[in-house]
Write a structure and sequence with these properties.
Blueprint (H helix, E strand, L loop, with lengths): L4 E3 L3 H23 L4 H6 L9 H26 L1 E4 L3 E6 L5 E6 L3 E7 L2 H6 L1 E8 L6 E7 L1 H35 L5 E4 L4 E2 L4 E2 L1 H15 L4 E5 L11 H5 L6 H15 L8 E8 L2 E8 L8 E3 L2 E3 L1 E4 L2 E4 L2 H11 L3
Helix pairs in contact: 1-3
Length: 331
């Protein structure tokens, strides 16, 4: 899903606001007429000698109505709700937009409701119950309200899942290194830089993606790049400096490209990257979730199937793959 998702209120909101404001204005003018004589005001003005009183009233009413309609239209046109990965931003204002936002993690309930008028015009209202707020937050009278309700719910679920992964990773990054390699944990000193030959290596990239494939085909696991086999922090500087874009985004972009080529873009959703600083050096911590279906590593037209056996990554023979698939994904 591409963010931000922009939600705008329907023309029904514009019409109801104009009608409501005009009703308030009528009540105000009628109330003022008990204390002020409009005709006397007219005769004391400079326009009395130019236009008749009835025309003056018609012009004044038209100008006031035009001004009200213009201001309400600008306000309605500028108002929008932006659903981002971790928050909802409410933008509004006449000529200078003001923004209010709240985090999705604070949303306790998402509802979809329709009034009688909304039902007639196929509109709906999204009602959000937010922690520590007395009144619910409403996105009123929008088209496809049920669709947007589901978008918000899905975004909240994604944010909760990512927050869970992030929190787990922050707590366990150093602990994983101290724990040492195992069936669900592997260290790689570099992603692509051969520290002995001082050149980039496709074999090293393949070794990393072999491990990712094995975790996908198993019960998941962690892969840490920038840490030696004996748990010493090596860092990512040499990997990053070997790229065209020499920063963390360049590193992640290259990883994504290699994963797409050798494993497949559809499996990227099960692989989560983060970068952390330990002992003044950057490392890349990759969390791999189990894949719901078999994953093959592709290179030069060949396909290989890898699994974890103990603390190593092992290929399976063609004769072994089918039995593993049947036993593993039948669980």
């Amino acid at each position: 899903m591409k963010y931000p998702v922009v939600i705008r209120q329907s023309p029904f909101v514009l019409i109801s606001r104009i009608a409501r404001m005009e009703l308030i204005l009528v009540i105000f003018l009628v109330s003022v007429s008990f204390f002020t004589n409009y005709e006397e005001f007219y005769r004391g003005s400079a326009v009395a000698g130019i236009i008749r009183y009835d025309i003056f009233l018609a012009l004044a009413a038209s100008l006031i109505q035009l001004l009200i309609t213009f201001l309400i239209f600008v306000s309605w046109h500028n108002e929008e709700f932006r659903v981002r990965e971790s928050e909802i931003v409410h933008r509004k204002g006449f000529f200078f937009n003001r923004e209010n936002s709240f985090f999705l993690r604070d949303v306790e309930k998402v509802e979809y409701k329709r009034s009688g008028f909304e039902f007639m015009f196929n509109y709906g209202t999204i009602v959000l119950t937010i922690k520590d707020r007395e009144k619910p937050f409403k996105i009123k009278s929008i088209e496809n309200a049920e669709v947007y309700r589901n978008v918000i719910k899905t975004t909240i679920e994604n944010d909760d899942r990512q927050a869970s992964v992030r929190n787990r990773r922050v707590v366990t990054a150093v602990e994983l290194i101290l724990e040492g390699e195992g069936k669900k944990l592997e260290f790689k000193q570099t992603f692509r830089w051969d520290t002995k030959k001082k050149i980039t290596s496709k074999d090293l990239e393949k070794a990393v993606l072999k491990t990712v494939t094995a975790f996908l085909n198993g019960d998941g696991g962690h892969l840490i790049i920038g840490v030696t086999d004996n748990g010493k922090i090596y860092g990512l500087d040499e990997d990053i400096n070997s790229l065209v874009r020499k920063d963390r985004d360049g590193f992640e972009n290259h990883f994504n490209q290699m994963l797409k080529q050798m494993i497949g873009a559809e499996f990227r959703q099960y692989v989560d990257l983060t970068f952390e600083q330990i002992e003044g050096r950057q490392i890349c911590l990759i969390y791999v979730s189990p894949s719901p279906k078999p994953v093959y590593l592709r290179q030069n037209g060949d396909e290989e199937f890898f699994i974890r056996t103990g603390n190593t990554t092992s290929p399976l023979k063609v004769s072994e793959v089918n039995s593993y698939i049947e036993s593993h994904w039948a669980k």
